Amino acid sequence: MKKIKPVYLKTIGAVAGLAGGMLYYYQVGCINGCAIWSNIYTASGYGLLLGYLAVSMFVADKKEVKSDDPS
Known about the structure:
Blueprint: H1 6-27, H2 40-58
Helix pairs in contact: 1-2
């Protein structure tokens, strides 16, 4: 089975967060007084950011192997 690249997993997480932010705006939202959730663009942006960060906590990027040989 092929492994999914970390970039694709992070993109999927970001898109899921975007959809979650939009869903939260339409279902719960805030009519007045909320700076973050009262606007669809900020709600979607924060959802996208949270989705990306949530997935990137669990996905390991490839790290370069450094040798101890100073040349």
